[in-house]
Amino acid sequence: MTSTSETHDAEQAIPVLIDIRHLSAKQLQELGMAQMAYVKPVVVDGEAAFAIHAADGTPMALAGDRDVAFAAIRQHEMMPTLVH
User: Fold this and answer.
1) Quick check: helix, strand or coil at residue 72?
2) Number of domains in the chain
3) Which residue, 29, 3, 30, is CA-closest to 18?
4) From 30, 39, 53, 54, which residue has the greatest number of CB atoms within 10 Å?
5) Domain region containing 36
6) What is the per-residue pLDDT across 14-37, written as a single tens digit (0 to 9) for each?
7) How many angstroms separate the CA atoms of 70 and 52, rounded?
8) From CA 7, how far away is CA 84, in angstroms rounded?
9) What is the tens place of the pLDDT at every residue in 31-56?
10) What are phi and psi of 6, to 5 degrees?
11) Model's pTM, two decimal places?
């Protein structure tokens, strides 16, 4: 299976094919890190909230509302995912 990423040139983007079967463990772990974040319901000081985490689980932000959490992720050009 291959994935296509683009390098940005002043004149034109050139697609680069990457064979994911040959990625290192570290490269696989980082796959999707810049494109994906997840939202997890939490309780903070007795109040319901929504924690925003990077794909690797690193906490990034806290929102009082699920829709606000998703909007914040989209505003940073990432794809939100809900974790139960």
Assistant:
1) helix
2) 1
3) 3
4) 39
5) 2-82
6) 766 667 677 677 766 666 566 788
7) 9
8) 36
9) 656 678 889 999 999 999 999 998 88
10) -115, 140
11) 0.61
